[in-house]
Amino acid sequence: MMAEFGHFTLILALMMALIQGTLPLIGASRNIKSWMLSGLYAGRAQFLFLSLSFGSLICCFIQNDFSVLYVAEHSNSDLPLYYRIAATWGAHEGSMLLWATILAFWTLMVSSIQGSLSLDFHARVMGIMGLISLGMGLFVLLTSNPFTRLVPVPLDGHDLNPLLQDFGMTIHPPMLYMGYVGLSVVFSFAIAALLGNHLDSAWARWSRPWTLIAWIFLTFGITLGSWWAYYELGWGGWWFWDPVENASFMPWLVSTALLHSLAATEKRGAFKAWTVLLAIFAFSLSLLGTFLVRSGVLTSVHAFASDPTRGSFILVLLGLVVGGSLTIYALRAPKIREISEYALVSRESLLLVNNVLLVSAAASILLGTLYPLVLDALKLGKISVGAPYFTSVFAPLMAPVFLLAGVATLVGWREASLSKLLRQLRYLGPTCLILGIALTAVFWQVDDLKTLSGLTMGIWLVATSLLSLWNRIRLRKRFVEGLLAQSTSFLGMTTAHIGIAVFLIGVVISNGYSQESVVRLAIGDSTDLAGYTFTFRGIEDVVGPNYKAKEATFTVTRGSSEEAVLRTEKRIYKVQRNNMTEAAISPGLTRDLYVALGDPIDQQTWSVRVYYKPFVRLIWLGGLIMMAGGFLSVIDKRYRLSHLIRSVSKTQTLQSPPRHS
Amino acid sequence: MSPRRKRMWVVGLIVLGVGLATFFALKAFQKNLLYFYTPSQVLSGEAPKAYPFRVGGLVVQGSLKRETNGVTLQFSVTDGTATIPVKFSGILPDLFREGQGIISIGRLDKSGVFEASEVLAKHDENYMPPEVAESLKNKGTLPQSYKDYKK
């Protein structure tokens, strides 16, 4: 009954999407007020129906209704309740329904916040979102219906993949999807603005908070995914350049570029056409991400199940979105007037450099990810592109970004003096370099150029960001007064840049000085790694709700002091009979100690993998700091609703350039 | 600066950035493309001797042996017609099992043993890397238990 209800509400939601995707767009072009308004109500109704639909799927999981195929394939009556709920989005069908539901949630948000947006503009935004919903809804209903019944009904389900029975994995997909789908809002704003010739500063100001929110979720989703891979896969790595990781990283890079280009568009009216193009790219890459993960064309840890008809459906959808939006762009872009003028040394130029580099980085990742697929499709051989490709392309492209991110905040809009800038930096530059060399020499080896340059760039990025903040603070008499006078969006930017530096330092040190060893240990044996002694204390049987496990206990000592007691498990899940290693980690800001149980050699002896990972936590800490920066920016006064309404109506009357059409 | 000169700068910058990216990409590309070979192809000498590649197939039942140091392992991989020995130091992935499809990355040593630097097994007992499934299907040695997810 629940499944039919879910199926029914899903169809109702699709009907609503059909209304939302057509009437407001026609209404906006013919100026029919009631048609324009209809999109708002259809959008809200769509959200209501989709949440009912998604809710009933969750109910099917909670009630262990194995007559539903999707539940039977991905759940089991022994699965703890928490994971039964999370199993709803643990595989393809459910996660696509989640995608659609999140899209409806963003639709609800956009429909409730009209502010001072003109009615036709708002209607167009709703219309574009409706069309995306329509495509996604059809996809779920026609190719991936999670409510399909199964006859005969099995006694029990096939269980959730053990890798996904983990806290990090339960919240990683929703967070990532919030980000992916959030970019559809910015996309819709851009297309609506193109359609209605609304590419003004009001459009940029409205797009910015939406981009920021999507970016925050993306950052969080990616950070979570990396953290999960680190502790759950038992390989001790935090990023594998796996095609699916790349799929989430490309929209992140492009939306980061978009954030920066939007800043120039909002403040100076610069790069309008480019900003629109970035918004199109960012959302297209999100869709491509969905396509890559779910079509089964990839050999990847994420490609759990796959089906090419779904793949071709998403491919067509992707083709329509990219092709359609680029056509609109090509028709409208010549009319976009760039009103801004700027000199070579100016913040605009530096933002442009930032954009070129970030987009180039995303493009080279795209090349490495898609090239094997294209080659395979053309039957030219099966290849894969190794991680060294990505690192050797990515690092040199990002180095200038790290060097210039802080400096750009010191440079004024429009025109800045190069000599003044160099005067400001003449002591800071050498100081950072000396500090970098000194730290590398004291703690590591001074001839290690990777660590040296990474560390120096990190210090430089923090120093230049703080210098820029200090320049603003010292305009006031007292420090606290100066600090409080800063807008939260400026503080947010500084925080996010410091987050990048923290991330960078974590990457270079943990990559350069991690130590790993695979050893054979009998109970009572010990092994030394990086000055720590790992002793194998014993092994015992443990029984979990849906698995049995061997749990090995290790103690770690350094000199005479005990550092940690680590318990690592080798689990066998009852239903799928899969082995799973649960690594044991003693986390710390300066080092992680990591033990993973390998294979039994005999009753008393096991192969064991031990790691020492210095400063690896900084990688995720950096991600969280970036996120906090994004959050500070988004709560800035000028994005508050009341403020937006006032300032935007002012800009529209005072500053908007005469429209030539 | 005149709009024309500015535009030239912008175009120049973009060309430079894209050019730089292409340069790095192509340079890195040559060295890091990993081609896939079946054991038959390896035995017939088609596989490269000088640089790494990927090989895939089923792990032969009963072929897994552990050397005395406890961490170096040897097993054989087959595609039904040809079998090659694989040597690997480290811990095998959780889903490695005899009789199951795997992919390993590494290079061939002089005596014809494949020295693997990485062994990949999939997270589902019936799932097989598409490359392996396809090469087995072509040889007609695909096991019955294999669930074809690509149907």
Describe this structure in words.
The complex is a heterodimer of chains A (661) and B (151). Chain A has 661 residues and is an alpha+beta fold. Chain A folds into three domains: 1-165, no CATH class; 167-332 and 351-397, no CATH class; 516-615, no CATH class. Chain A is 64% helix and 12% strand. Chain A has helices spanning 2-30, 33-62, 69-74, 81-86, 92-112, 119-143, 167-196, 201-232, 243-268, 272-294, 308-332, 347-377, 387-408, 418-425, 428-443, 449-473, 479-485, 488-513, 617-634, 641-654; strands at residues 383-385, 515-522, 526-529, 532-543, 547-558, 561-573, 579-582, 584-586, 591-600, 605-614. In chain A, the strands form two sheets. In chain A, strands 3-4-5-6-7 form a five-stranded antiparallel beta sheet, with no helix packed on it. In chain A, strands 2-10-9-8 form a four-stranded antiparallel beta sheet, with helices on one face. In chain A, helix 2 runs antiparallel to helix 5, helix 8 (201-232) packs across helix 20 and helix 18 packs antiparallel against helix 19 (617-634). The longest helix of chain A is centred in the N-terminal third of the chain and has 32 residues, at 201-232. Chain A starts with a helix and ends in a 7-residue tail after the last helix. With 151 residues, chain B is of the alpha+beta class. Chain B folds into two domains: 1-32; 36-139, OB fold (Dihydrolipoamide Acetyltransferase, E2P) (Beta Barrel), CATH 2.40.50.140. Chain B has helices at 3-32, 39-43, 130-139, and strands spanning 33-37, 53-59, 65-66, 72-78, 83-89, 101-108, 114-120. In chain B, strands 2-4-5-7-6 form a five-stranded mixed barrel. Chain B is elongated, with a radius of gyration of 22 Å. Residues 145-151 of chain B have low confidence and may be disordered. The chains are: A alpha+beta (661), B alpha+beta (151). Chains A and B meet through helix 12, strand 1, helix 13, strand 2 and strand 7 of A and helix 1 and strand 1 of B.
